[in-house]
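A note from the maintainers: we've had questions about how concatenated examples are separated. There is no special marker in the raw files; a new sequence line simply starts the next protein. For clarity in this README we add a label.
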Amino acid sequence: MEAFDPVLLARIQFAANMSFHILFPTISIAMGWVLLFFKTRFVATGQAHWMDAYQFWVKIFALTFALGVVSGITMSFQFGTNWPGFMTTVGNVAGPLLAYEVLTAFFLEATMLGIMLFGRGRVSEGVHTLATFLVAAGTTLSAFWILALNSWMHTPAGFEMINGQAHVTSWFEVIFNPSFPYRLTHMLIASGLTVAFLLAGISAYRWLKQDRGADVKASLRTGIYIAALLIPIQIVVGDMHGLNTLQHQPAKIAAMEGIWETQRGAPAVLFGLPDATTQSNRFEIAVPKLASFYLTHDWNGEVKGIKEFGDQHPPVAPVFWAFRTMVGVGMLMLAVSWLGVWQTRGQRSIQPWLARVLVAMTFAGWVALIAGWYTTEIGRQPWLVQGVLTAAQAASKVPAPHIALTLALYLTLYLGLLSAYISVVFHLAKKAGLNDEALNTEGVANAQPTAPGAQHA
């Protein structure tokens, strides 16, 4: 076990924890706003199916929120156990930002969540709607502070180093650092897309189970239309984010594109097997000059290659393939959502084959999200804070066997929790359909004509 690099194991452990944790806030951020939409539609129209949709999805929101909180606790532990150098060096920046997230966002969410879940019928409709809004706002505010810190780690600004420690010179520059607007927007839209396909997938599952009430149809159409609207916006934001990354983290862009040599008119590598030994791509399929065009908006624009950065560049293959996974899933989302809009236009019903596709893509947003997160975080290596602190400098002296043991325990626990979460979500969908069927059966029974005189018996 000592043959394993403890820094690499610590990185894998943090990635495992973060990969699991990020799944749940990604849903809760956008789901809060979807619930607010359902609630306001009910208040505005008085149509019961909007409240039925709210009551179903608020259960999934509560489950997701709980797992997000629990999995987030382990993240803070790792700063002290595996990465003590992080807080020692940049704690003056990271500590307050994490505290702001707790004080301004988490407390708000946790307080209002109780009213949102259990207050209807005990408080006025207006107060309940306000609580739903505050929960949604709290989840977004939480993302604001976390993304401010994460963005600062990629494009640090507003600080100076004194005796090996970062000291803030401008909180405005720290928070609104060069990459923050792009990362925050990109993440919020990614959350919206994740929830859109969750809505569409679970609703399609209920539809295939013959649960075809108005609430199911409303949820299905809501998911499809949100996805169809957000995908083109995400493509534009992604392009802007890429240009910002080219300016501040060119080594990451070189790895994403699989470009080894600095060149003008750089090709877009569609497929290839990056080989770190030969510093080339095997079996490469590329479109000439296209990378220069979409990266610099000039067919002959210069793009720096990986060799330009010596040993200060990320591992190419993981970044290269994670980026293509994210883009590939995004293109699939675009095609499926637009096809869904076409099929359900007017009052048309979705076709069974497309419903099955949507069920299969219920958690497609998670795949794109994790691939995108790996692209940006592995792409920052070897830096933990770009140009300030490397992962090796921040790592603890915990022996490799100890890290490996806790990593195995984490992976086992997370696999079990993730399986349970997905099972419960589909169980709730199936149970909702059975409840609706029971109500319909009871309604039919109660509507049967009675025998003459029975009403007066």
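[label: protein 2]
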Amino acid sequence: MTPPSLPWEGGCRCGQVRFRVSAPPILTMACHCTGCQRMTSSAFSLSAAIPSEGFTVTAGEPVIGGLHGANSHYFCPHCMSWMFTRPEGMDWFVNLRPTMLDDATWFVPFIETCTSEKLPWATTPAVHSFPTFPDFEAYEGLSAAYMAQSGAVQG
């Protein structure tokens, strides 16, 4: 499904933290790791990798929750919605939880990771599946394939 025109708006469940996305995702994902299962209380987490310059918190002050370390998970301090992740050493993108967008109906994961940990009944329509995380070098090709398939245009 084609994403709506940018910019996109979104926020936490209670609305105290709001954000704007002004650049298209470079990749969309579902992660089946047990850590994501526990963070979401669900079968997997969803992510849209947004270039950092295209992501702005416009209201409220998210706080770090979940993991405290290499991957900082940001939550609303009031309703505790997990909103986005900033992976350490990868300042060029933000992993946004796409269900925090006001309109997430277009979202489809292009890749799924950690399928070796997935619940037996959990399925996604992802084009590419990986038993763990792909090698870092693979992300460039996966991002290019996603952007070509989605028709994403930077800017």
